[in-house]
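Inputs:
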Amino acid sequence: MRNIAFLAKKEIKTYFTSPIAYVVIFVFLVLVGFFFYSAVGWFNSQSIQMAQNPYYYQQININQMVYAPLFHNMSIILLLMLPLLTMRLFSEEKKIGTDELLYTSPVQVSEIILGKYLAALVVLAAMLGLTGLLSVFTFLWGNPELVQILNGYLGLFLMGAAFIAAGIFFSSLTKNQIVSAILTFGALLLFWILNWASYSAAGMWKDVLNYLSIFQHFDGMTSGILDTTDVVYYLSFSSFALFLTHSVIQSRRWR
Amino acid sequence: MIEVGHLTKNYGDLVAVSDLSFRVEKGKIWGLLGPNAAGKTTTMRILTGYLPATEGKASVAGFDVFEQSNEAKKIIGYLPEVVPLYPEMTVSEYLSFVAAIKQLPASKRRQALDKAIKVSGLETVKHRLIENISRGYKQRVGIAQALIHDPEVLILDEPTIGLDPAQIIEIRELIKSLKGEHTIMLSTHILAEVTQTCDGVVIINEGQLKASGSLEELRASFGDKEGVILKLRKDHDEAAAFLKSIPGVEKISRQDGEFTIEWDQGKDLREAVSKLAVEKGWGLLEMRPVAMNIEDLYLRIVSGGTEP
């Protein structure tokens, strides 16, 4: 654990002594802020119209009308931005030769991987945590359900953690950061749209494709449903990607 | 201290190191010599646990580098050919990080950091970002990171590569100052470095051991001529003919007023040469042994010279 903490601390420091974390967090917050502003604006105009009809008035729900679409938008931004956060994690070590320092030190490969993973999770938590400030406004002037919002954030965090694990895996494959980012983005996008293929599939394949789709598991969480299947999916996805990273590093060294 | 036995490393069909065996005694500086792609870096990477071997054994201070990898890594300080530096860190931050991952207890880290900085001459740059310091200082930081946990064994892959002559001398002196407390194995292309810093050498080519031992042992094994350089008070023209007449002398050459007299290995004609010079009254000022220079020795061994 101590080694993981040292390695994570070093990675976090690297993120924040270079412009990477600042740029990623800044752009993420600007985009999320824009989507939040648009969603709240749309919610206001819809509310005024719906308030005139007692039936529709009952259906005004800030969680469904602001947070659910906001979380979807945030997930897409994470899909675009997290590969940029993970692309250097192993690629850069290999490129500048610092992997030789790490692998000749008395630390396990698994500790190195987890240290990097933990550091990227901290940046992800910072990204998501800062967007929490936006909710101050909705709580001040609205009446959203906190549990539902927290559920959405948990979904985003778990999904982001899976993205990061995949990014770390692809970063371990190449010295080139751009290649690492493109591979991560491509693979994640494929997992995102797997459920599209399920429309034309039948029987067991339909269920398999639906289950494998990243998006499918996130959808429920934005609606306030916490299903352990979804949590297990994201944790399994992350664990498998980290396991593959471990295998790649070990096999390259032992080849 | 370092023992390598029948070590072989294949990269697919390419044989990088083949049946390599050698031994380095405690407290000595040993050079690993060989042309490019001879297998020096591969050997060092195996010893430091970066790469596994295909076959064979290697141990450092009694720890098997494959079976007891973590224990071995704790007592090895390693400077790879490409100095592993994080440019965004300051020198102090970087060395603190290395001390931590080398498992140095937190209570000893401050002291170890100060010592490594002092020994490596990094006081003036310790708060500067690594990306902003000169190549020479980067090399020193590389040596400092190898030393930070006070390892028993230092493995330095081309420690003076890319440095200017003044920096090379500084680093060489630093390495020499570490002798005794540390067992050091270094690889180099600079043969003068070997004569000035190393107690012995391992010469490899195409992954195979060509020779191993102290320079004297190698000269004795691979040199084919011995002789003396003679300096006389006056440049006596007839001296060459007289010296040539000594039974056993093979070759006489003359340069800058000095005679180089060579004879077959195994003979010792020093007494005969000095006696002749005194008898003839040439004014013998100096007589010193001819040593086969390291370049000739190296080329002979690498090109497949065999022990006579």
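Chain B touches chain A through 30 residues (CB under 8 Å). Flag for discussion at group meeting.
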